[in-house]
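Narrative summary of target 7.
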Amino acid sequence: MNETNPEIEASLDALATLCCESLSGTADPAVDRSERLLKTLLMSGYVGKKKASFQVDLETRVKAKCRDCAMHRGGALSSMSEKLAKQFADLARWESKNPSDTSPSKAANISSATDA
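Modeled conformation, tokenized:
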């Protein structure tokens, strides 16, 4: 964790807290909130600094924050962290695509595409 910055630490801690709340049943998993945290994590440079996988980092933090809950609901934690890891990977892939990756640029309107 020594290669991270305060934004990465805050985002990972907030995600771990969200997972703990969900595991304990005190809150429903907030998809929109987790997506914002994942995007913040991505924009803070987590992808370039990580040594372990996102899922391992998240599970380690959740186990440190709410050990009893995480121990008794290990399957739920694994499922939740796997889902968040997939969301993070999809988001990283989406953010790294260039517009030219999918198709060439096109004219904005018909008059710019023709001689009309």
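Residues 6-94 form one domain.
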